[in-house]
Amino acid sequence: MTIKDCGGHKGVSSACQCHREKLYRKLRMAAIAFVLLALFVILIVYLVLHPHKPQFYLQDLAVLCLNVTPPASAYLFTTMQATVAARNPNARVGVYYDSADVYAQYKGAPITVPTRLPVEYQGHRDQSVWSPYLRSMDNVVLSPELAVSLAQDETAGYVLIDIRVEGLVRWKVGTSWISGHFHLNVNCPALIRVNEGKGSYGATTGGGTEYFRFQQAAPCNVDV
């Protein structure tokens, strides 16, 4: 029998151990090569298809009530319905909306509680329209400064509100490959005219769709 020398180890048992080490080394190299190849394929698919972020539009904002009475109270009472359209501009990539919350904010402060949109898949160049109701639900308390600012804007005749959409999306390529989650952040500015621009003059009328008018549909800012 021939005694093999592997790295200074002599004998049959040492030769077997040497072969096992070589085998393990080859398996590790093969696993690393497979992972690198998979990552390379994913990168190539992404670069070739390069999914574009969804396009959002605020089509309408019906304000049914927007009432705050500082300095006596900083509680905000509001009910509104936002009509938001989303379009997938990709010809080869689908979009999963796994979770998305819609809420309204004024100068960076939320003025409604989040409303969850239904889970939805958007096919190639498909479009979806949602019309969720947004309410304060007696849970919104503004800072004294913001309460005064909102009342002053109503009195002046125009109020700028932001409709926000925040959630998680995934990309789908072909019939099987689905990406991990990406954060979706959408901001839709909405200019509301109060009493035909005449303002409230301190009156607490409760408002209504005729009292509060959404000025113009516009595209939203989208970040993925």
Describe this structure in words.
This protein is an alpha+beta fold and 224 residues long. It has 2 domains: 1-50; 55-223. Helix content is 23%, strand content 41%. The protein contains 2 helices and 14 strands. It has helices at 12-49, 144-156; strands at 55-67, 77-87, 93-106, 109-110, 115-116, 120-122, 127-130, 133-135, 158-173, 177-178, 182-194, 212-214, 218-219, 221-223. The strands form 2 sheets. Strands 3, 4, 5, 6, 9, 10, 11, 12 and 14 form a 9-stranded antiparallel β-sheet that branches. Strands 1, 2, 7, 8 and 13 form a 5-stranded antiparallel β-sheet that branches. It is elongated, with a radius of gyration of 29 Å. The chain crosses the membrane at residues 29-49. It is found in: Membrane. Residues 83-188 form the Late embryogenesis abundant protein LEA-2 subgroup domain. This is Late embryogenesis abundant protein LEA-2 subgroup domain-containing protein. Keywords: Membrane, Transmembrane, Transmembrane helix.
